[in-house]
């Protein structure tokens, strides 16, 4: 380890998302270096040069023309960990975020209510399960990100036509899920709980208005709907996604989400669930890359990026100004 090097290295792919974190690190005097995984290389014999690494790479990189960022980030984290480095939200947590099918298996193994899913690499294979499929269903890529390529479908024939019409729809990893469709009250939306160091940071209700891109970052979903990452999943007439502080989040929901965070070994992460009209509380998404929403955290009385820096400094066993 180079004593003259940074204490912290932040792996990232979307510099706009990282601006608030980098600014907070600079204010607090943390010696850090960004590592942009979009165009990068590493050597397998290189001794890790920092005391701590923090993964902020995103599965949705392919939507921004950075498809190769994800495998590079995963390979680099695996190498760092083999060489003895400590990586927050490391290879295991990132691999979990990259696979909706792995998330579904984890939640099911924990006895947590989660949508029934069929993972496939050929639509024709769905016919083996046709008798058990309830329509409509949700079609989504195994490697998700910003709600891309998620849609509600009504038949196997429609799924086959989607991929026949556009073979590039299979990108980036050639795996899709056909998932149980869960109706919910659009006035209530879904709930997202943000965790830091295994404890709840804040909770929010997200009113989707039919959209699937629920990225909490103001860069992606500002209040005016003109974000850099916005994907018009619900058509241009749909209102912007709304993010509201939810201090009344049930203790039982927090307890379940905490179990997911612990089982998934997430240092920082967001867990999402929705409530169905028949009373189910269904957990369906695990996010290792938390794009924090300052306006929601401020309603809880703090700056979320300052809290992240507090956590990073504690992991470094370092007093930060």
CATH class of the largest domain equals Alpha Beta
Low-confidence stretches: none
CATH topology of the largest domain: D-amino Acid Aminotransferase, Chain A, domain 1
How many helices? The count is 8
Order of helix and strand elements from N to C terminus: EHEEHEHHEEEHEEEEHEEHH
Write down how many β-strands occur, each being a DSSP E stretch of 2 or more residues: 13
Structural class: alpha+beta
Mind describing the biggest β-sheet?
5 strands, antiparallel
* Rg, nearest Å: 20 Å
**Which range best describes the helical content: under 10%, 10-25%, 25-40%, 40-55%, 55-70% or over 70%?**
25-40%
Number of domains: 3
| Beta-strand share of residues | 15-25%
On the 0 to 100 scale, the average pLDDT is 90
Strand order, largest beta sheet: 11-10-9-12-13
CATH superfamily of the largest domain: ATP-grasp fold, B domain
**CATH architecture heading of the largest domain:** 2-Layer Sandwich
What does this protein structure show overall?
Helix 1 (15-27) packs across helix 8 (304-315). By secondary structure, this protein is of the alpha+beta class. The protein contains eight helices and 13 strands. Strand 1 (8-12), helix 1 (15-27) and strand 2 form a beta-alpha-beta unit. It starts with 7 loop residues before the first strand and ends in a 6-residue tail after the last helix. The protein has helices at residues 15-27, 69-82, 91-97, 100-109, 156-165, 251-264, 294-299, 304-315, and strands spanning 8-12, 32-36, 52-55, 87-88, 117-120, 137-141, 151-153, 176-180, 190-196, 199-207, 242-245, 268-275, 281-287. The protein folds into three domains: 8-96, 3-Layer(aba) Sandwich (Rossmann fold); 117-180, Dna Ligase, domain 1, CATH 3.30.1490; 184-310, 2-Layer Sandwich (D-amino Acid Aminotransferase, Chain A, domain 1), CATH 3.30.470.
């Amino acid at each position: 380890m180079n004593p003259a090097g940074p204490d912290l290295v932040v792996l990232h792919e979307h510099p706009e998302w990282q601006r608030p974190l980098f600014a907070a690190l600079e204010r607090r005097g943390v010696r850090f270096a960004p590592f942009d995984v979009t165009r990068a290389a590493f050597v397998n014999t290189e001794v890790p040069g920092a005391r701590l690494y923090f993964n902020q790479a995103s599965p949705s990189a392919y939507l921004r023309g950075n498809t190769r960022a994800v495998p590079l980030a995963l390979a680099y984290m695996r190498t760092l960990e083999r060489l003895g480095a400590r990586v927050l939200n490391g290879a295991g947590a990132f691999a979990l975020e990259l696979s909706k099918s792995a998330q579904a298996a984890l939640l099911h193994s924990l006895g947590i209510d989660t949508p029934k899913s069929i993972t496939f690499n050929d639509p024709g294979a769905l016919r083996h399960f046709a008798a058990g499929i309830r329509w409509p269903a949700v079609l989504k890529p195994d490697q998700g990100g910003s709600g891309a390529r998620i849609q509600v479908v009504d038949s196997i024939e429609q799924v086959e036509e989607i991929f026949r019409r556009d073979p590039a729809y299979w990108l980036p990893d050639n795996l899709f899920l056909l998932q149980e469709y869960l109706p919910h009250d659009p006035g209530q939306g879904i709930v997202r709980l943000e965790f830091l160091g295994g404890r709840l940071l804040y909770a929010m209700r997200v009113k989707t208005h039919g959209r699937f891109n629920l990225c909490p970052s103001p860069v992606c979903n500002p209040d005016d709907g003109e974000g850099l990452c916005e994907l018009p999943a619900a058509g241009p007439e749909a209102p912007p996604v709304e993010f509201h502080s939810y201090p009344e989040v049930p203790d039982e929901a927090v307890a379940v989400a905490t179990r997911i965070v612990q089982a998934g070994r997430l240092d920082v992460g967001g867990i999402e669930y929705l409530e169905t009209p028949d009373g189910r509380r269904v957990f369906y998404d695990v996010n290792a890359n938390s794009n924090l929403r300052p306006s929601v955290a401020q309603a809880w009385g703090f700056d979320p990026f300052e809290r992240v820096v507090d956590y990073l400094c504690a992991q470094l066993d370092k007093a930060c100004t």
